[in-house]
Amino acid sequence: MTAEKSQGGIASTEVPPEQWKRIDEIIEKYKHKQGTLIPVLKETQEVVGYLPLEVQQHIAVGLRLHPSQVYGVVTFYSLFTMTPRGRHTVRVCLGTACYVRGGQYIVDLLRKEFNIDVNQTTSDLRFTLEVINCPGTCGLAPVMCVDEDVHGIPEPEKAVEILKEYP
Ligand code: FES
């Protein structure tokens, strides 16, 4: 279980033993069936949160595929990611209504507070920060979505306060 570099704020990460166990169970469930790579990758990503190379190699061995076949599928389909994601996805809206009401200040404050850039993940794998363009709740602008929750953010500091509620 080697460390892997990511593009986010993470220097290295490891797949914990219980997740390897779950991956083996997924492989076991599918290994005697045909055309199972995509469901195996999907379920594995649900467990690990992303598909690092070491996991892809493990799946390749388990399904008796060449690692390049697995890599090819992971990089082809946008639903798969090789970048670690946080437990919570924080999306700040930069659509027109939110932008004019200070959406960018929220982004800047969160970047500073969590020491990450947009599209990066905190080193404790708590948050992934993204920007979006109008989820359709302009009445609350400026808006920050955390997973499925939508929050109106009257002051940028309020964003930091709200995120304390997400472990
Ligand atoms: S512009 Fe942000 S919710 Fe519409």
Kindly describe this structure.
With 167 residues, the chain is an alpha+beta fold. The longest helix is centred in the first third of the chain and has 14 residues, at 17-30. It is 43% helix and 13% strand. It has a five-stranded mixed β-sheet with strand order 2-3-1-4-5, with helices on one face. The chain folds into two domains: 17-76; 88-163, Glutaredoxin (3-Layer(aba) Sandwich), CATH 3.40.30. It starts with 16 loop residues before the first helix and ends with a helix. It is elongated. Helix 1 (17-30) packs antiparallel against helix 2. Strand 2 and strand 3 (127-132) form a beta hairpin. The chain has seven helices and five strands. The chain binds FE2/S2 (inorganic) cluster. Residues 93, 95-98, 134-135, 137-138, 141, 143 line the site of FE2/S2 (inorganic) cluster.
